[in-house]
Amino acid sequence: MRITNNMIVNSYLTSFNKSLERQNKLQEQLTDGKIVHRPSDDPIRTVRSLKFNTDLAANEQFTQNVQDATSWMETTDSAMSGLNSIMSRVKELVVSADGTKPVDAMKAIGQELDGLINAAIDIGNTQIGDRYIFSGQMDKTQPLTRKTITDPLTNQSVEVVVYNGDDNKISMPTKTGQVDPTQDSVNLSGIDAFGPEKDYDPIPPATDKVKTLQSLNELLRIKNELLKTSAVSQSNSSGGAATVGGTYTGTGYQDITVRITAAAGAVTAADFSTDGGTTWTAAAADASVPPVFTLTGTGITTQIATTPGNATGDTYGFHVPNTNLVPDPNWMSSVGLQYVADAHDYMLQAQTELGARSSSYTMIANMLDANNVTITDYLAVNEDLDIPKAIIDFKNSEAVYNAALSVGSKIMPKSLVDFLN
Amino acid sequence: MSSAFGGLNTVVRGLMAQQISLNTVGHNISNASTDGYSRQSVNLVSSLPESLMGSNGQMQLGTGVDMQSITRARDTFMDLQMWKENSTLGYGETQQNLLSEVEGVFHEPSDTGVQTVLNQFWSSWQSLGTNASDDSTRNLVLQRGVAVANAVEQAASQLKDTVTSINTDLQLKLSNVNQITSDILSLNKMISMSETVSAGPGSANDLRDQRDLLVDQLSKYISVRVTEDSTGNYNIQSGSLNLVNSHSTTQLTTYSTKDPDYDYEVLNVEANGKPVTLSGGELEGLVDTRDDSNFGVKGYLDKLTTVSQFLLKDFNAIHRDGYGEDNISGRNFFEGTDTAARNFYEAQYSDPTNAAYMTKGDWLKALEVNAAFFNQSSSTPGLQLIAAKTKSSTDPTTPQGNASGDNAVKLAQALKMNTAGLLPDDPANPPNKYQPTLGATASLDSYYSAVIGALGVQGQSAGRLVENQKTLVAQIESWRQSTSGVNMDEEMANMIKFQKGYNAAARVITTMDEMLDKLINSTGVVGR
């Protein structure tokens, strides 16, 4: 075949350019250690790379979820341990409140119990960050408040711990898929820890039921039993002292207010109210001086001492417990102790469930960790350049490039012109 | 008896022939690196002999050399091959360049591509699922949503920019084509005139070389079929279009229409007021890569539109089904300012027989995060409106508090798997559910990676086509050069040949001159 100068030059340039293209590609790969820089370099690797990166992002997110879940459950667990020690102390106190103690000692025990109840409520209001851990899904509302409410059914005031949260689960998913509270919930609601739930009918004008926590309610009952007293508070300090007698025939505790309606030194007429001053019923007076007023329907009698300071409108308020006017050690050692045991068991059960859930999360954390290593491995195999091989290829192509240059320089310039004289 | 000066004439003819040949050698050497030049050689034939009567009868005496023609060495078959393969090369190169621009738009696989943005969006919803009442987590969801909308808008606008640059390129190339065809026409005229009037067919060597070079350039722009007529004119046709003939050219112009889906300007080619279907070459490459709905820029815009539709239809439907912290449902996450459009995609989604109110471009424009979420006022803070829970807190059977992230997890899942099991009931078509936008099996992730995979494959095959064509064209060019190229050594050897020939002829003239001198001046002077 006839060869011309242009052919040699063209073919030299084409091969030269091919060699440079190879070098360029290797250089691009060596600069950042990745095989693929655009989808057309290797479409299959690109699609795999997208998938692995997505998997890695998912794995990292779930690892974060597991860490959040673990810290939540650890906080809950330490709160439950605190409650545990409180309940042990409560049990000691209730056991010690037997028939051998005088009323003052019982009162002291009652006050310590009051302090312990407050401590338990504080634990119930623990926060992690700004989220309440015992509030269920209403994690920005404080779950436990201690209140005295009036039960609309019986019209008596009762001291309760109101629960402001709900009974739902907070889920922190650790795998793709929808939320499954039986598998990925991390919290104990107030009802789980302090329940069961006892609802009171709504107090008008509110329309929502009042949710209270039975374990704490019962502790409050025990406290109130220990603190039973018939102390009377009077509104007029210069008026006569009032004494209370009789046996209350209603159930639970009752606040009674007695009001003087006619007095001239000696009180001649009085009425009483059992609902905090809304309705007043006249008290029946007997013939003694000063008269003993029978508060009809309650079984309670009161007598107000005669003093010049008695004035119309003076009020005397007192709590009246059921049946007895002093703490009942029999009740304490039977019903009271039972209440304490029930509450403690309830809390222990909740803590055990939490422990089981917590250990399954630890397992999941390990699995996610192992997965992370696997996916990163796949990603590396898929995307990363085999650097030693690439460097050798680069050296090869460099040698070829040099050889081409030197050969070209020898062939091209010579022609017959150089040899003619 | 031959004439006295006939011998001189013979040698003079020889001198001229050698001289012309030497000139041709010089022409060849000067044009050795000219594009499209074919080497020329002089056809020397011995001239008609003269009859002489000799003692044995008639004999033929040669009368020297005749220059019959100067021809160029050209293989027209190679030219036809070249023109055919060159237009395929032009098509492939254009396609490869444009596809690599599209690859640049999507920028995968990297940390800054659209896939990463979607992954981060998913992550933010998962985080919201664990801590739904936290404002900073909600804010993160909002920002990532904005990032997704921006990424899609950005990619769409870059693709539209590519379309604009294609249009500009098309106009430039068309004006080049028109220029070339006019030049070919004037060469046609010159060649046919010079060949019919003076030198005979096929003799206008340099003009033909120029014309063939122009056809080379033309063939890259558009595929050509070249035929030569009896007067030496090239008739060039492309497809059904007659580009050049012996007396006229067809000027190609553009006319502009608006793309019905995206409202960008589309330039198409027409000739004499009638639209032209281009075939082959860079021009068809430009138009195909712009308009094709599978591998063209338009096709990729369509795929971005599908992503946008998914977010506006499926994603929004699941978001509408959830409740914000204010216990109100029915809000869209992605919602533009156009209320009519919103009513449409909420309604059209449920009734697929509704007429297509929204064009594809409208779908892309409508992708914005709901402006209500950015409201900073203390009475209705926007962040609280993001629907993270699946039931209201006043629900009679299963109320949920604000820390419930069930809907957030559902929304995250919608991004990762097919939405068929997640979509709520269609209120306009009970008890049926909404239909998934991406079909029965595809998820957003799988759809997007299929798009990128297809892009990669198309880019790769365009690259392969270009590589093969380049090799083929280089091969053909090499064959052409083998026939038509100038070999310096050959020219040098010829130069020596003609120089020696000239010298020898000159020497013969000198000898004849001496002989004639002897005859003229030295005969008949006996005894002087």
Describe the model.
The complex is a heterodimer of chains A (421) and B (528). Chain A has eight helices and 15 strands. With 421 residues, chain A is α+β, with helices and mostly antiparallel strands. Chain A has three domains: 5-49 and 369-420; 59-228 and 327-368, Up-down Bundle (f41 fragment of flagellin, N-terminal domain), CATH 1.20.1330; 232-323, no CATH class. A five-stranded antiparallel β-sheet of chain A has the order 7-15-9-10-11, with no helix packed on it. In chain A, helix 1 (5-32) runs antiparallel to helix 8 (387-411). Chain A is rod-shaped and about 165 Å long. The two termini of chain A are 29 Å apart. By secondary structure, chain B is mainly α. In chain B, helix 1 (6-30) runs antiparallel to helix 12 (488-522) and helix 3 runs antiparallel to helix 4. In chain B, 41% of the residues are buried. In chain B, a hairpin with a 2-residue loop joins strand 2 and strand 3. The longest helix of chain B is centred in the first third of the chain and has 65 residues, at 135-199. In chain B, the strands form four sheets. In chain B, strands 5-6-7 form a three-stranded antiparallel β-sheet. Chain B has twelve helices and ten strands. Chains A and B meet through helix 1 and helix 2 of A and helix 2, helix 3, helix 10, helix 11 and helix 12 of B.
Name the descriptors:
heterodimer, A: 421 residues, f41 fragment of flagellin, N-terminal domain, 3 domains, 8 helices, 18% strand, rod-shaped, B: 528 residues, 12 helices, 56% helix
Helix content of chain B: 55-70%
Specify the oligomeric state: heterodimer
State the end-to-end distance of chain A.
Answer: 29 Å
CATH topology of the largest domain in chain A: f41 fragment of flagellin, N-terminal domain
CATH superfamily of the largest domain in chain A: f41 fragment of flagellin, N-terminal domain
Structural class of chain A: alpha+beta
Mean pLDDT of chain B: 88
- Average pLDDT score of chain A: 85
- Which value, in Å, is the CA radius of gyration of chain B? 40 Å
- Write down the secondary-structure element order of chain B: HEEEEHHHHEEEEEEHHHHHHH
Largest beta sheet of chain B: what is the strand line-up? 5-6-7
Order of helices and strands of chain A: HHHEEEEHHEEHEEEEEEEEEHH
Distance between the termini of chain B: 30 Å
Largest sheet of chain B: 3 strands, antiparallel
* Annotation, overall tally of beta strands of chain B: 10
Largest pleated sheet of chain A: 5 strands, antiparallel
How much helicity do the residues of chain A have? Answer: 40-55%
With strands numbered from the N-terminus, the spatial order across the biggest sheet of chain A is 7-15-9-10-11
Sheet-strand content of chain B, in percent, reads 5-15%
The count of helical stretches of chain A stands at 8
Tell me the count of domains of chain A.
3
